């Protein structure tokens, strides 16, 4: 397919990146197509390091041929490009060989990332592929202009490439993959209409709980908390819904679990994130929420963290604390 045709089709389909940021795919592709470079890179990002998000695993397991076709479509669209399927350690061990069989002689390699959650961040992807430490770069320049080894680099999530293949073959049905987990009868990944609300996804998959519950939507660490009467809204983020039985769930333990995750996942590069997460962990471990301190922490983390990881930490904490722990006590010590 001519390159302009495919980018036009991506635009008409209104495809947004499925890694969580929801940036228009056609704009990203156009930047890389227009950028000057004797070589270009196409990266299918299968880092998927967030808890309770399994959609990329599902695609690798059931639709690897569609994913590889999506990368090949990008190679055909962007002259002088080579492809990389970038996988976390677990996925690499499991899918390297089957992927290489499908790839055959196409110029696509399968790469094993070394780090964890942060390794999915686009500039960290470039650093890792260059053999450097898993730390984010300052932006701009964005990878589309100057990515791996300084060459223009297109990085899209694995699900995005799945959709690209469907669009190229006129088979895209405006769907996305939802990961449902937690206190439900059956956890799993479901491909369903893109515009469903959280409530509709739970109902249509038979996952609507019979007991009092709340959910975390988007991702299993960065996702926001919603009460059961707040679910007429899109899932967002990476399409994950984690259901929590309200009686069984100790909110402080849940907060501490997130804090531990972010303490391990952050790269220690900048003070607001490194120290902020540590202070959050300290506070929730003591079960003493000082809301004035908490608000200062959130403000500093959201506004001064170097990368999206630190900026995204306050979202889940704020929503769980204000909706579940202190719904009536904003502004006071708990
Ligand atoms: S915000 Fe966190 S993960 Fe990002 S650079 Fe700073 S310490 Fe590292």
Give a verbal description of the structure:
- Helices cover 43% and strands 16% of the residues.
- With 334 residues, it is α/β, with parallel strands linked by helices.
- The chain folds into three domains: 3-168, Rossmann fold (3-Layer(aba) Sandwich); 175-245, Ubiquitin-like (UB roll) (Roll); 251-325, no CATH class.
- The protein is built from 13 helices and nine strands.
- The strands form two sheets. Strands 6-5-9-7-8 form a five-stranded mixed β-sheet. The chain has a four-stranded parallel β-sheet with strand order 3-2-1-4, with helices on both faces.
- It has helices spanning 3-12, 25-34, 55-62, 64-77, 89-103, 122-129, 158-168, 198-204, 251-265, 271-286, 291-304, 308-312, 314-325, and strands spanning 40-46, 81-87, 108-112, 153-157, 175-182, 188-193, 213-218, 224-227, 240-245.
- The chain is globular and about 55 Å long.
- Helix 3 crosses helix 4 (64-77).
- Residues 118, 136, 266-270, 273-274, 305-307, 309-310 line the site of iron/sulfur cluster.
């Amino acid at each position: 397919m001519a390159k302009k045709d495919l980018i036009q089709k991506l635009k008409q389909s209104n495809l947004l990146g499925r890694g969580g940021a929801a940036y228009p795919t056609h704009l990203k592709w156009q930047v890389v197509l227009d950028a000057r470079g004797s070589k270009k890179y196409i990266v299918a990002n299968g880092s998927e390091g967030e808890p309770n998000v399994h959609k990329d695993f599902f695609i690798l397991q059931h639709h690897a041929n569609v994913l590889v076709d999506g990368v090949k479509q990008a190679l055909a669209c962007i002259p002088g490009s080579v492809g990389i399927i970038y996988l976390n350690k677990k996925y690499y061990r499991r899918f390297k060989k089957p992927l290489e069989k499908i790839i055959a002689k196409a110029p696509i390699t399968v790469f094993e990332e070394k780090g964890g959650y942060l390794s999915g961040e686009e500039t960290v992807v470039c650093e890792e592929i260059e053999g450097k430490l898993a730390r984010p770069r300052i932006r701009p320049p964005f990878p589309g202009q100057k990515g791996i080894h300084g060459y223009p680099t297109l990085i899209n999530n694995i699900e995005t490439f799945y959709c690209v293949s469907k669009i190229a073959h006129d088979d895209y049905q405006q769907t996305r993959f939802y990961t449902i987990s937690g206190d439900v009868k059956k956890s799993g990944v479901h491909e369903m209409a893109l515009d469903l609300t959280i409530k509709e996804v739970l109902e249509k998959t038979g996952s609507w709980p019979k007991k009092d519950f709340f959910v975390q939507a988007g991702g299993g660490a960065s996702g926001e908390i919603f009460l059961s009467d707040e679910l007429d809204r899109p899932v967002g983020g990476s399409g994950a819904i984690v259901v929590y039985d309200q009686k069984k769930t100790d909110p402080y333990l849940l907060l501490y679990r997130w804090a531990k995750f972010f303490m391990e996942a952050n790269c220690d590069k900048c003070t607001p994130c490194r120290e902020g997460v540590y202070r959050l962990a300290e506070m929730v471990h003591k079960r003493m929420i000082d809301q004035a301190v908490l608000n200062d922490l959130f403000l500093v983390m959201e506004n001064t963290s170097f990368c999206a990881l630190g900026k995204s930490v306050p979202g889940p904490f704020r929503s769980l604390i204000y909706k579940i722990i202190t719904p009536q006590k904003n502004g006071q010590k708990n």
